[in-house]
Amino acid sequence: MATHVRPGSLPGVPELDPALVGQWQAGGGELVDLFAQARQRLGGVAAFRLGPRPTVLVTAPQSVQHVLALHPDRYVKRSHRARLLIGDGLLAATGEAWQRQRRLLQSQFTGRGMRRYEQRIADAAGTAAARWAGYARTGQVLDVGDEMRRFALDTIWRALTGHPLDPGTERELAAVPAVVAALPSLPADGAAAQGAVAAELARIDAVAGLAIAAARDGDAGPDGPGLLHVLIEAAGTRPEYTDRLIRDELVTLLVAGHETTATTLTWLHLLLDRNPGAREQALAAGPEGSPERRQAVQALVNETLRFYPSAWILPRCAAEDDVLDGYGIEAGTDVLVCPYLTHRDPGLWEDPDRFDPGRFTTPGRRPNHPGSYLPFGIGPRACLGLQFALRESTALLEHLLPAPAPRFRSTPAKAAYGLTVRPDGPTPAVLDG
């Protein structure tokens, strides 16, 4: 563990040549391209300047662990990119407010809490599989990304309200991915950004308001009370759970609970289309319902998350002076942990550009350091919904993998790097019956 001393006399983090940054800016490349240059030329702790102060990029596993897991008090979240959408929900909260909110929700996503949602996940997966079977019978063209988003939204809506997703709610909540997709291009000014997506936010607020009112009136739905009811019960003893905070937590859970899962499942289908042998290997691992089959399906998900982690970049700010991998980090420095690049580091992963789920089923095939694989983050701010996301993904794939595979009419040419890494374009397909 690094000694925590004032870094004034220590070497600064090596910086990428400003001329290279200028070339990148002139070429209009993606931010991840600049990150990749910095990592390749300077190593797992590197800096670059897009303004007057350097930003530090962290991809080396031991440094990732230092920032996220060992010293989260020194490297803090300053402001979440989606705050105009999620308000003061758990993802954006900091300090004592974050600790209180996390304690309330944590029990819902581990052990006994997860058992409450098993049947809801199974029902949502069954509904999606039946719809998939209908497409196979009719030959209808579907959009795989839309179908995965529909499934993931149905799953989290059941978990929140106890109700399956109805067509009207689904239609209005299309505003959620619309705002998420717009975030990277919104104006820097908060009021202007809010105004640019005002109509979408109003639709989301209306759905949230109706769901909260129904839950307050005792409507637990056919599946029984859900996460929304936990929040409403908390309001009875915790004054901080105002109507606004309940709305913010509801929307946070909607965003975190469906956008990332839908994106992961869409990428998985695209990767299987390019690597059809991986599907056959998973199905051959064991009979339907066997532990071997489930392990193989989970490996498909894990390898997809290696390529496209749910959180591709994790911004932090140094709250005080620190030493990171022997370099001095001054208080106020922006620090970017990039799981996307850590997961593609050839020094950690053998043949990292190859889709190989066997990394996650064969002992010794993947790096052991906890900072080398972190699709949901690590440390106290790691995603609470990790087990929920893995379980719903596995439940759906256990239905869909043996079914007809999607044959894509076209595939996106590139990825879009926003709140998540998503396919930049539609994914039309037919199912080979």
- Report the biggest beta sheet as strand number plus sense, adding barrel if it closes: 5 strands, mixed
> Helical amount among residues, as a percent range?
40-55%
How far apart are the first and last residues' alpha carbons, in Å? 56 Å
Shape category: globular
As for the number of domains, it is 2
Integer-rounded radius of gyration: 22 Å
Q: Under the CATH scheme, which architecture of the largest domain would be assigned?
A: Orthogonal Bundle
Percent strand: 5-15%
Description:
By secondary structure, this protein is an alpha+beta fold. It folds into 2 domains: 1-83 and 312-346, Uridine Diphospho-n-acetylenolpyruvylglucosamine Reductase, domain 2; 89-307 and 383-404, Cytochrome p450, CATH 1.10.630.10. Helices cover 51% and strands 10% of the residues. It is built from 17 helices and 12 strands. The protein has helices at 18-27, 31-42, 61-70, 83-86, 95-106, 112-138, 144-161, 167-172, 175-182, 190-196, 198-216, 227-235, 243-274, 276-284, 291-307, 339-342, 386-400; strands spanning 45-49, 54-58, 75-76, 142-143, 314-318, 322-324, 327-329, 334-337, 406-408, 415-417, 421-423, 428-431. The strands form 4 sheets. It has a 5-stranded mixed β-sheet with strand order 1-2-8-5-3. A 3-stranded antiparallel β-sheet has the order 4-12-9. Strand 10 (415-417) and strand 11 (421-423) form a beta hairpin. The chain is globular. The model has no long low-confidence stretch (mean pLDDT 93).
